[in-house]
Design goal:
One of its GO terms (biological process) is chromosome segregation. Belongs to the 'phage' integrase family. XerC subfamily. Forms a cyclic heterotetrameric complex composed of two molecules of XerC and two molecules of XerD. InterPro entries: CB, DNA_brk_join_enz, Integrase-like_cat_sf, Integrase_catalytic, Integrase_recombinase_N, Integrase_SAM-like_N, Tyrosine_recombinase_XerC/XerD, Tyrosine_recombinase_XerCD. This protein has 14 helices and two strands; from the N terminus they run ααααααααββαααααα. The protein is mainly α and about 325 residues long. It folds into two domains: about 5-115, Tyrosine recombinase, N-terminal domain (DNA polymerase, domain 1, Orthogonal Bundle), CATH 1.10.150; about 130-300, Intergrase catalytic core (hpI Integrase, Chain A), CATH 1.10.443. Strand 1 (about 185-190) and strand 2 (about 195-200) form a beta hairpin. Helix 7 packs antiparallel against helix 9. It starts with 9 loop residues before the first helix and ends in a 7-residue tail after the last helix.
Length: about 325
């Protein structure tokens, strides 16, 4: 949403801008997350503007009642917005009000009484081992230039072999490029948190192979992965590559870049990895998030049962 279209009192406009700077400079949100937070709060303030009949101020925010916040949530429901979208918007709203309280600018306890809308927990489905192998091999059968296919292979291996988010892989600079023989990679994830992920030899080799064939040679501080014109590669290009692979290989519709990261976690779990370790590798702040993103392999559970239960296999 375009914030320039908002009509706000000067004190609220100043607070809105300061909150966005805090999200960017101190919380170090990605541009995508920052835009989402901004859009969510803009949506709420637009509603308040109509609700109040004029540009709202910080005093207006402090005077809002629980019923006013619920009216906003109901309005989103009538517009047909997804519950997941409203849950995120409510999180953005809480962030703004908590920030305002910490800085002594405004406060409203009513916002804490709001509950997130109930929603189904959806899991991105992991690709099978065979589908992953077909996916990696299929990159060289799409008709792309060889250096582009090698670039895509390096990216896919970072997602599947290291469990990186697509934004984390594309944020790597030439200086940070994994090299052949390198055993670990330092990643800056959400909120600026750093983690160390093991690096398979094949990943360093794939990145080196891409760099040797790439017609563009980025400087140390420029993006490692570039497009056909030498500019920084965007996530949409990677998504489009997987969309083409889905049609070429008959992969399921949920075969996305994030599904490769999910496959990394699921295959580790199925191979005997423990949730705490996988949590660290994925960069999740809470174990519950890891449990939501990793589905336990049913066959592995049955195998553990057969080997461990004293009555397994007996009549």
């Amino acid at each position: 949403m375009d914030t320039t279209a908002l009509s706000l009192a000067p004190d609220l406009a100043k607070a809105f801008a300061a909150w966005q700077r805090w999200l960017s400079d101190e919380r170090r949100l990605s541009p995508h997350s920052l835009a989402a937070y901004q859009s969510d709060l803009s949506d709420f303030l637009s509603f308040v503007t109509l609700h109040e009949g004029g540009p709202p101020s910080l005093a207006h925010l402090e005077s809002l009642k629980t019923v006013d916040f619920r009216a906003w949530l109901s309005a989103r429901g009538r517009r047909g917005l997804a519950k997941s979208s409203t849950a995120r918007a409510l999180s953005s709203l809480r962030s703004f009000f908590n920030w305002g309280k910490r800085h002594g600018l405004f406060e409203n306890a009513a916002v804490t009484a709001l509950r997130n809308p109930r929603q189904k927990q959806s899991l991105p489905k992991a690709l099978t081992h065979r589908e992953m192998q077909d996916c990696l091999k299929g990159l060289f059968e799409l008709g792309d230039e060889l250096w582009v296919a090698k670039r895509n292979l390096a990216i896919f291996l970072l997602l599947y072999g290291c469990g990186l988010r697509i934004g984390e892989a594309l944020a790597l600079t030439r200086r940070e490029a994994p090299a052949a023989g390198q055993s670990a990679l330092r990643i800056r994830g959400k909120g600026g948190k750093e983690r160390i992920v093991p690096l398979l030899p094949v990943i360093g080799s794939a990145v080196s192979d891409y760099l040797e064939s790439c017609p563009f040679q980025p400087s140390p501080n420029e993006p490692l992965f570039v497009g056909k014109r030498g500019n920084a590669l965007g996530a949409r290009r990677v998504q489009e590559t997987l969309e083409r692979l889905r049609g070429f290989l008959g992969l399921p519709p949920d075969a996305t870049p994030h599904a490769l990261r999910h496959s990394f976690a699921t295959h580790l779990l199925a191979g005997g990895g423990d949730l705490r370790t996988i949590q660290e590798l994925l960069g999740h702040s809470s174990l519950s998030t890891t449990q939501r993103y990793t589905s336990v392999d049913t066959e592995r559970l049955l195998d553990v049962y057969r080997k461990s239960h004293p009555r397994a296999g007996r009549v």
